[in-house]
Structures are given as structure tokens and as C-alpha cells.
What does this fold into?
Amino acid sequence: MLDVADGGASSGLRGTIHRPALDADVLDELEDLAGTSDLIAELAEVFLADAEIQVTVLEVSLAGADSARLAHAAHQLRGSAANVGAAELARLCSLLPTGDGPLDESGVALVLSALRTELSRVRSAFSERVSPR
It folds into this structure.
């Protein structure tokens, strides 16, 4: 796994915007399980609100050099993103440090910038998915 602490951030960020923001198969499966398309709209609302909070926690953790808190928030966001089909967002979270060691502040800041951009793409993709057709 690439880790900012290992100097892998820049190589792990290449090609980020060439992947779909959301995996339609994952969303279709969730919709099929629920039996309604309303679930995706609710899921998007809850996920996006929580993702904003987690990214803010990541930023605050970086500013305070709190590597444990940063690792916990990255883990939470990675799992949530994977569950809703935001694979690229989940992958970016996996580039963040996972332990209590010292932070590579510039590397983490680079990943956080990419996370913000990807979250915007996910928001747009959800908007397209749930908008009336």
C-alpha cells in the first residue's frame, strides 16, 4: 500500500481523475437491495455530509500534527467511500498515514487537496444520479 509516510503520495495521485467518481454497479446493487431509488438520494445526503466532516477532521488533524486522529478519520472515510462506490476517494484515503508516527505534512496536504477535488467529483456524480430524468 502506498503511504505518504513512505513518499508514495505523488505517485499514488497520478491518474486520479481518469476514473469514474462513483461505481454505478455498486449503486445499482444498493438500489436493487432497497427496492427503491430513493435510497440512493438518502445515502448520498448522509454520505456527503459525513465525508465533509471527515475531511475537515483530516485537515484539523494535520494542522495539529495529530497522526492518530488523522489515521482514524482516513479509515472511516475510506470505508464509507468504498461502501457507496466512491472507489477513487477510498483509494486516496489509503494514501494517508495509518499509524501514530510523524506526519509528512506536505505529502498529507497534497493528498488532502486531491481528496477535496475527488469529493467534489463524487458530489457531482451523486447529483447526476439522483436528479429527475
Notes: The radius of gyration is 15 Å. The domain at 23-130 is CATH 1.20.120.160 (Four Helix Bundle (Hemerythrin (Met), subunit A)).
